[in-house]
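In the previous lecture we treated proteins in isolation. Real proteins rarely work alone, and many bind small molecules. This record shows how such a complex is specified: first the sequence, then the SMILES for zinc ion.
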Amino acid sequence: MTKHIFSVLLLIFFVATSMAQTTSENPNANQYIYWGYPAEYKLNQAAAAFGAIDNMLQTYLPGKEIPAPRELALVSLDQLLHDTDNDATEPFYNFINKRMLRVLQDLDNPVTKGLRIYKLYNDGFIIKSNKATVAIDLIPGGSDSKPFIKDSIIYGIVGKCDALFISHWHPDHANLNVAKAFAANGKRVIAPKDLWVGVDPLIQPLAEHVETDIEFEDLDLTLHVLPGHQDNVYNNINVVEFHGIGTVAQTGDQWYCCDMDWIDHVHERYEIDVLMPNCWIHDFERHLRGFAPKMLITGHENELGEHSIDHREAYWITMKKMELLSHLHIPNVLMTWGEWYDYQR
Ligand SMILES: [Zn+2]
Ligand SMILES: [Zn+2]
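The predicted 3D structure, ligand included, written as tokens:
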């Protein structure tokens, strides 16, 4: 048995070293000649494509209409992010960290009117008013040992936020280290029932999974938690009311279960300015009629998690879904990670 394990380890060693040699032995790499080195070719092609996409997105910024060059950039991003060869590669890490660094830097700029809404990986959002900066479902992504977003950037972002709201426990939405960092900074974390119970007095799971209003007087906002579900998982729908400025709602991973009867009536009690739904939510039209928002910013596209690529949810699919819902006249500002949009009533 030991001998068997030893030979497997030896095999892994040889494969690993030969792979390493594949990229290091190319004598013509500095002339951009990759003949005989297809993996190295693909890696460099991805780096070129991510770079060009980033430039294009910085030129054609998010808006209620999507100009053709921006659409091409988003669809190209779909292609890169649905090619698993690009998962956990340097071109991907460079792309996402460059964009998250821009968020970190922009958070220093004051918002004087309305709300600035940032989109982050995976279903994460930061909403900033003149008095408050709140994060919803902020995570670093990837694994603990190799997160997508560098510690210096994600914890830099945490340091500029005043509160964190978590929809549900799934790791593409909730990260305990991030929550602890909020608490360590003296900031409150509102989590769903049963999540992180007793971890820290500032990490506050709901006592019951019922509609709950939580005041943040110092931030001049009220959090209204609506008791949604992803199947049988508690899923807080976080409705954040920035007093006198605007109300935004993020749906987490709302999915089936038993909530449609009250979701149909949300608009009778809340005036939702911006809804951030999970892009794959079931019965999109019924949810939009229930919340009746003035505009959308869809989230959760291109989750690079455990799903096979058919459930990574491309930007082009969101665009097609919006075409099907065009009769509702609710614009979707389609953004990728590290972009933001200024909303004013
Ligand atoms: Zn989930
Ligand atoms: Zn999710």
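Summary for your notes: The chain has a mean pLDDT of 94. The two ends are 69 Å apart (CA to CA).
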